């Protein structure tokens, strides 16, 4: 009887875990479908880096806008523009512009599009906790999905992807490294289908004629 009960319990846990994965996959698919239906996306976010042992606690703000394959990314005073062909990295502190081609297949190249779709490949996932944020009419439910890298040698221990269940949008991304460094990207503003300036993804060389042009290829 004891073995029978253990077997039933084990089957119950397996079925629960399978359902958990199915619910997580369904939610992630809704988020992906939403994002891919937008003509363009504009996001303001807060980027926080914490490591208690190393006494690190830093927060910076950034933004990015993306439309099709073109994007513009701003953080720590640096602006990066990809016009669909060339990538321009503009650093006012160094008075330098680095110009290069971007290989979309290069996994080491971080782009806004990859930030939006990173969870689609390379992870096992399962439902995690949910919580409510805000109050009154602005109260919203955030459901977290835990992403565990399939690569056992990855530097990431796991990622918690917080999703606004009302709009099926990413609310925050919390990454915990194996060195216990926690990186959090919190979405402050999420806008889409905007009327964008036609010059937003165009590099205006005349504005930086006194800068050093570092042309890599």
What can you see in these coordinates?
The chain is α+β, with helices and mostly antiparallel strands and 217 residues long. The chain has one domain (2-67, 111-196): outer membrane lipoprotein receptor (LolB), chain A (Clam), CATH 2.50.20. The protein contains two helices and twelve strands, in the order αββββββαββββββ. The protein has a twelve-stranded mixed sheet. The protein starts with a helix and ends with a strand. The model is unreliable at 1-19 (pLDDT under 50).
**What is the beta-strand fraction?**
over 45%
Largest sheet: 12 strands, mixed
Q: What is the radius of gyration computed over CA atoms, rounded to a whole number of angstroms?
A: 21 Å
CATH C-level class: Mainly Beta
Nearest-integer average pLDDT: 83
Low-confidence stretches: 1-19
Number of domains: 1
Instruction: Give the full name of the CATH homologous superfamily.
Output: Lipoprotein localisation LolA/LolB/LppX
CA(first)-CA(last) distance? 72 Å
Second rung of CATH, namely the architecture? Clam
| Widest sheet, order of strands | 7-8-9-10-11-1-2-3-4-5-6-12
Question: Descriptors for this entry?
Answer:
disordered N terminus, single chain, 12 strands, 217 residues, alpha+beta, 47% strand, 12-stranded mixed beta sheet, 19% helix, globular, outer membrane lipoprotein receptor (LolB), chain A
């Amino acid at each position: 009887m004891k073995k029978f009960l253990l077997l039933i319990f084990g089957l119950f846990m397996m079925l629960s875990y399978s359902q958990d994965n199915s619910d997580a996959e369904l939610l992630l698919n809704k988020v992906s479908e939403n994002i891919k239906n937008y003509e363009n996306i504009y996001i303001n976010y807060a980027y926080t880096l914490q490591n208690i042992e190393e006494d690190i606690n830093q927060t910076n703000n950034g933004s990015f806008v993306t439309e099709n394959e073109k994007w513009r990314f701003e953080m720590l005073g640096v602006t990066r523009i990809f016009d669909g062909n060339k990538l321009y990295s503009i650093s006012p502190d160094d008075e330098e512009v680095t110009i290069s081609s971007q290989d979309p297949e290069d996994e080491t190249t971080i782009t806004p599009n990859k930030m939006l779709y990173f969870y689609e490949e390379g992870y096992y996932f399962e439902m995690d906790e949910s919580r409510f944020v805000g109050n009154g009419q602005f109260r919203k439910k955030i459901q977290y999905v835990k992403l565990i890298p399939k690569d056992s040698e990855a530097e990431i221990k796991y990622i918690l992807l917080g999703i606004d269940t009302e709009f099926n949008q990413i609310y925050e991304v919390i990454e915990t490294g194996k060195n216990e460094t926690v990186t959090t990207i919190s979405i402050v503003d999420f806008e889409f289908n905007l009327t964008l300036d036609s010059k937003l993804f165009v590099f205006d060389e005349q504005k930086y004629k006194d800068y050093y042009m570092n042309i890599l290829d």
